[in-house]
Amino acid sequence: MMTAFFWMLALFMLLLTLSVRPMGAWLAPLASGTLPGRWRAFDAALLRRLGLNDAGMGWRDYTLALLVFNVLGAVLLYALQRLQGDLPLNPAALGAVEAGSAFNTAVSFVSNTNWQGYAGETTMSYLTQMAGLAVQNFLSAATGIAVAFALIRGFARRESGDIGNFWADVLRIALYLLLPLSVVLALLLVSQGVLQNLSGYLGYTALAGHGQTLAMGPVASQEAIKMLGTNGGGFFNANSSHPFENPTELSNLLQMLAIFLIPAGLCHAFGRVVGDRRQGWAIYIAMSVLFVVAASAIAWFEAQGNPLLSALGADGGSGNLEGKDMRFGIAGSSLFAAVTTAASCGAVNAMHDSFTALGGLVPMLLMQLGEVVFGGVGSGLYGMLVFAVLAVFVAGLMVGRTPEYLGKKIEPFDMKMVALTILVTPLLVLAGTAVAVVVAPGLAGLANPGAHGFSEVLYAFSSAANNNGSAFAGLSANTPFYNAMLGIAMWFGRFAVIVPVLALAGSLAAKKRLTPTLGSMPTHDGLFIGLLIGSVLLVGALTYLPALALGPVVEHLAIWATH
Amino acid sequence: MSHKKMVLPLLDAALLRPALRDTFLKLGLRAQLKNPVMFVVYLGSILCSVLWVQALLGQGQAPAWLAGSIAVWLWFTVLFANFAEALAEGRSKAQAASLKGLQKSTWAKKLAAPQRYGAEFAMVESFDLRRDDVVLVQHGDVIPCDGEVIEGIASVDESAITGESAPVIRESGGDFSSVTGGTRVLSDWIVVRITVNPGETFIDRMIAMVEGAKRRKTPNEIALTILLLALTLIFLLVTVTLLPFSAYSVNAAGSGEVVSLPVLIALLVCLIPTTIGGLLSAIGVAGMSRLMAANVIATSGRAVEAAGDVDVLLLDKTGTITFGNRQASTLVPASGVSQAQLAEAAWLASLADDTPEGKSIVVLAQRLTEGAGGHLDDGKVGRTALADLHAGLTPAGASFVPFTAQSRMSGINLDGRQIRKGAADAIRRHVEALGGSLPRSLLQQVDTISSRGSTPLVVAEGAQVLGVIELKDVVKPGIRQRFAQLRQMGIKTVMITGDNRLTAAAIAAEAGVDDFLAEATPENKLAMIRDYQSRGQLVAMTGDGTNDAPALAQADVAVAMNSGTQAAREAANMVDLDSSPTKLIEVVEIGKQMLMTRGALTTFSLANDVAKYFAIIPAAFAVTYPQLGLLNVMQLASPASALLSAVIFNALIIIALIPLALKGVRYRALGAAELLRRNLLLYGVGGLLLPFAGIKLIDMLLSLLGLV
Predict the structure, then answer these.
(1) What domain of life is recorded for the organism (chain A) (predicted)?
(2) Burial of residue A507 (number of CB atoms within 10 Å: 0-12, 13-18, 19+)
(3) Which of A398, A450, A538 lies at the smallest CB-CB distance from B675?
(4) Confidence (pLDDT) at A516
(5) Using an 8 Å Cβ cutoff, are A283 and A291 in contact?
(6) Which burial class, exposed, middle or buried, applies to B571 when counting CB atoms under 10 A from its CB (0-12, 13-18, 19+)?
(7) How far is CA A130 from CA A221, B123, B580, in A?
(8) Which of residues 481-520 of B touch A (CB under 8 A)?
(9) Residue B94: how many CB atoms within 10 A of its CB?
């Protein structure tokens, strides 16, 4: 079982690593804003035609543009859901989405979370899926990447007042990166049997003799960007465990690769733009190490199975298969779970709620680490770079210099922004969970009592505040309480992080870039990689250890205590 | 003229008493508010004390003895941190006070009216001189205070300030009228009007500032405080939310009881970075103290921090890389003159010359003659005369001719012989006046020596020119290794000199500097600093002269010599009381050490938390979920002892680390990668492991004493 998993993991990491360089080469000119020759002419003409330009913005203007853009996106998406009953492309004749759910969903897709309190096939019309959700899948991904670009520029530029042009960034990312990749991936998925039609739902008589309905729709086009943009919002309720979304082992592999494709490539693009590729590889290796360990841990815990079931002879030594599709098994499900929670994708091909206690702890922890192990498109890199600044700040002092990263001195303002960034999500997760496990409407959503119920709530807030979007399915979250609480967690988990990151980008861009000497702390070697991993783990562990102890850890100890 | 270092013992009884007093004085709200991390502990202590009283009244959640013990140890935590700061400040003040004693008083000849040469003078102490007093400074006197020459002309040895050994001429009026306190008149006399009052000098003002010590936090300290504050907030969040989590768990498990407030407060204090929080300001104060111990006063902590960051050191050649005074290295006889003859004349001419150059000529002449099997003592000068010479007296039948600004020669008249040494043109005029001439071949030798960057001194007896003495710049021993060390630390050294390129290159190669600036002028020095800075490097330099001021102001770290001019000292951000040109290297090391200490203790503090979790989490929740007892990896005796052990360890570690905070972690001249590896291993891994042992040990002690 573990052997099959390790082969799959090895193949996955090999393909991913091979993609890093070409993806980096594709992303770097977009990040640095220096498009090659003919492309630049086309780009200039396009911007002119649209009435845009790529004049540099200060970080405040950039932030303002980003916020306006995203608030407008949320308002439009909300309106579309509420009005869908009166709009075309609605063969299933679905009515307006309930207000609380529509708010939650609008925030969810704009914040790149794609938490879904609703079931797609019974809630959203084709128009809402295509013109609302899929569009936000593109735009929220482009927003995240734009922020990462801004931060990369912050490191690369010297004494500069601007961090790029938000409008040009979003346009270029969507048009030159996400769209072509999505077209290719959608076609590949169609080749594997993923649906792509606008037909009405099909009725048929099942073997048992009673009537059933097969939901249809433009699935492949949405599926591609769902993965590439680390969005994760399924067309269907069953997400990537639905055979029409993820039919084969090959489609499963393609989906997993698609999730990591841009986050991994961004690492290399970062190295290219700052002029030292080793810096990018160091980040990539740190992420990879954390990922490989986490994925292996999930597979290992799942392979151990549930002793209570084993005692009944229920699993025949095959490990914990509850909530898993036999097409993917423990190997394919564990790897997918690690990928989707390491990146802030949130698509699932197995039910995380049914994982063993510790097998479920790992995905939760991956989110709680701040979605920096590859993480969301853009957000993974900027989150990891914030951790790099933190690691450099503490350890850098130990080489006897005031801390600097890539030649940029880390000063009080930068540290303020770093502090805000690392404060936001623990606040949302811990405070949100604390409220939910005390008040009646929060407790009402719990399907399981005891420690597992606690884990479900903790998972939900971890997922929302870190913009992952996957769920421990046991929680009934489509209630006014959770729609509101999680909606708030998603919004601030996204934008209360982006604002200080952009401020950091602006502050860094304005600084001199010091020349590294033998006396400067190297940030490309094994020691730094270890340090970065250590910082991510230490901050994550220190923040969430007590909560995890009261959830999955207790559950695990209770189950295994008798065996 | 280096002063002995003032090394204060770590614990001095005289310092202890005021430190203890301040420890309690700092318990005031205002003092506590300055340090956000310790303020949280302070609030926790107050809250815990209230809960203790409540428990004593029989209404508490936790047993009274537990709440009481926690409260007591939390107060200790606060007091220990106060003590660290008070001790550091006490030491710093004591040093500042002793620095004042360093300023030396000299005697001055204060002129009475009409304040002109020839007027009556009274001997007064230089400290008693006021502005506009007028003093007479004669041959051999030290100029008592900064001032302006109003009458006379004299050659002045300013090597203590400028490092240049050649005496300079000071005269009334014009550009050469200002004189500096501490320099010495070598010949003739001048009348000087004093321009500053005592106690108003730059140094006086700086010491006052250090003493008054409203210490401002440095940028890095502020940034670190922000990080510590953020961590404190996170841990506050973690502990506060544990209350509802615990309530939920008790409800769900149907057993145990909700975690009590004293336990949560104990957990909070253990988790927040109290170790670094409590020692941070002590580290900063101790950094300034170490600098003062090296007789350097910094105008701000910011400058000390910047010193750690320096990439380029600009070092003056003279005094730093080479000895300030040139030394005689070879004797070149004129044609037809033997080496011994020249050596003897040079020796005689220099016997009464107590400048370092003169002494070096004596040493060289003796060595050369003895090497050739002869000696200089007998015959030539009578034995009594020799004894007189050694006693510094003029032997009978001999008269010394001192160096004067007019003649620019010195020498001796002995038994009818007239021996002179001096600059080539001065000697030429001298021998030509006597009917002799300077041979052409010797003139060539003089030029060769000059082109090597050495100084030629021509020796003549009567009208006959005997030869040339080469006074050479000698590179200090060990300086090459020092530069190699600096290179390893990533610091580039640049030699600044007024010499021509060829000479500079030769000395630069010999000393092993990375680069040099020849024919340096204030303008090209400034341009060079700007050039380095534009390439993203931080530049440090020392300076003394007024024309150094622009460069000092431009440099990131600027150390002015105490003996330097007012303008130079105002432009610098540190003043070296010893006026030692190599001090810059020490300053850089002190800066680095301070930053390293800060980083090491932060890392240590954070790494400590892991063990504390393993102590407290099982202790706090084992009644609710007995399974969590498995996390009690240290096998601590009971939940109460686990809790107390963690809190006690947390308090004691502050006391234990005070010596490290005050002394600073050891600095080694290594590359950054190697330094980081060592320190991470020591303070990171050590910080991870040590508390496991420490908490276990305290727990065993508590159990042994039956306290829990």
Answers:
(1) Bacteria
(2) buried
(3) A398
(4) 83
(5) no
(6) buried
(7) 9, 100, 76
(8) 487-492
(9) 18
The amino acid that residue B17 corresponds to is: R
Mean pLDDT of the A531-548 span: 93
Kindly give the pairing relationship between strand A202-205 and strand A211-214. antiparallel
B421 marked as part of a ligand binding site? yes
Which 200-229 residues of chain B touch chain A by CB within 8 A?
A: 219-220, 222-224, 226-227, 229
Nearest CA in chain A to B272: A542
**Is the Cβ of B393 closer than 8 Å to some Cβ of chain A?**
no
Rounded Cα distance between B351 and B390, Å, is 9
* Side chain identity at residue B45, one-letter code: S
Q: How far is A475 from chain B (nearest CA, A)?
A: 16
**Subunit contact B490:A520, Cβ cutoff 8 A:** yes
Is B541 known as a binding-site position?
no
Proportion of chain A above pLDDT 70, given as a percent: 99
Rounded Cα–Cα distance for residues A538 and A390 (Å) = 12
Q: What is the DSSP string of A318-354?
A: S---TTB-TTTHHHHHHHHHHHHHHTT----SB-GGG
Provide the 10 A C-beta neighbour count for residue B122.
10
Which of chain A's residues have a Cβ under 8 Å away from the Cβ of B235? Answer: 542
- Please count the CA atoms within 13 angstroms of the CA of B403 that sit on its side-chain side: 26
B596 touches chain A (CB under 8 A): yes
Query: By percentage, how much of chain B surpasses pLDDT 70?
Result: 88
Task: Report CB contact under 8 Å: B248, A520.
Answer: no
Q: Which chain A positions have a beta carbon within 8 Å of B595's beta carbon?
A: 397, 400-402
Ramachandran angles phi, psi of A25, nearest 5°: -65, -35
Band (pLDDT 50/70/90 cuts) for residue A356 is very high
As a whole number of angstroms, the distance between CA B91 and CA A91 comes to: 83
pLDDT at B538 over 90: no
Spell out the residues 6+ positions from residue A245 whose beta carbon is closer than 8 angstroms to its own: A194, A219, A223, A234, A235, A236, A238, A239
Q: How far is B671 from chain A (nearest CA, A)?
A: 5
CA of B587 to nearest chain A CA: how many angstroms apart?
A: 12
Cα dihedral B412, B418, B422, B424, rounded to 10, equals -170
Dihedral of CA atoms A286, A291, A293, A294 in degrees, nearest 10, equals 140
* Number of Cβ atoms within 10 Å of the Cβ of A199: 12
Q: Check whether B544 is labelled as a binding-site residue.
A: yes
Beta-carbon separation of B237 and A542 below 8 A: no
Binned at pLDDT 50, 70 and 90, residue B214 comes out as low
Phi, psi for residue B589 in degrees, rounded to 5: -65, -40
A402 and B490 within 8 Å at the Cβ level: the answer is no
Quote the pLDDT of residue B694. Answer: 96
Q: Catalytic residue numbers of B?
A: 316
- Terminal CA-CA length for chain B: 62
Q: Is the pTM of this model over 0.95?
A: no
B372 touches chain A (CB under 8 A): no
- pLDDT mean over B193-218: 66
B404: annotated binding-site residue?
A: yes
Spacing of C-alpha A291 from chain mean position:
14
Which tens digit of pLDDT belongs to each residue from A437-495? 999 999 998 878 888 999 999 999 999 999 999 988 788 888 999 999 999 999 999 99
Bridge partners, A352 (sequence order)? none
**SS3 label, residue B516:** strand
How far is residue B365's CA from residue B376's CA, in Å, rounded to a whole number? 9
Look at A514 and B538 and tell me if their CB atoms are within 8 Å: yes
Report ipTM (2 d.p.).
0.93
Angle, helix A249-273 to helix A179-191, in steps of 10 degrees: 160
